[in-house]
Design the sequence.
């Protein structure tokens, strides 16, 4: 019984810590719901894997992927969890505190909780209202709020900005 309780505690802790970093203020206090066709837990390596039609919700956050892998490093490493999601594409949606939606997609999403660094790889896109940025690689440093986008030899970075929406943002400040 004690081993079963420890497994459940580890699993619950992994999920709560890992997904709350995607969330904004109100979302982080909401329950995390994960639905998938399959789930596996590797206790020895502290890895939880969800596969086939993975849907994760927490407040306004909605993430859909083919596979999600959450890895927890050893306690003495000083590192935090990482979350990797794979899909064709992985999609996410969230409402910001001002009520505006943010949508994103990529074939691979990697988030390191320790460094608070998000990486969207292959066919990456971030969109807010009608403004968007596309590239093969989009990175976002949550702490410094720095976004970078890169293309490759076959495609360049594309950015679409809607002036009226930008003006409305400036007027609210």
Sequence:
């Amino acid at each position: 019984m004690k081993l079963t309780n420890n497994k459940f505690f580890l699993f619950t802790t992994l999920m709560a810590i890992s997904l709350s970093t995607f969330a904004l203020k109100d979302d982080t206090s909401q329950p995390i719901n994960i639905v998938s066709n399959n789930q596996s837990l590797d206790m020895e390596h502290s890895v939880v894997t969800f596969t086939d039609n993975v849907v994760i919700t927490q407040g306004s956050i909605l993430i859909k992927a083919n596979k999600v892998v959450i890895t927890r490093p050893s306690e003495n490493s000083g590192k935090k969890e990482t979350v990797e999601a794979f899909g064709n594409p992985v999609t996410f949606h969230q409402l910001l505190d001002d009520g505006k939606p943010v949508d994103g997609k990529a074939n691979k999403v990697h988030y390191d909780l320790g460094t608070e660094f998000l990486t969207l790889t292959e066919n990456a896109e971030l969109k807010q209202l009608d403004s968007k940025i596309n590239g093969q690689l989009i990175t976002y440093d949550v702490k410094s709020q720095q976004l970078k986008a890169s293309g490759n030899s076959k495609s360049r970075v594309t950015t679409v900005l809607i002036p009226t929406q930008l003006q409305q943002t400036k007027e609210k400040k």
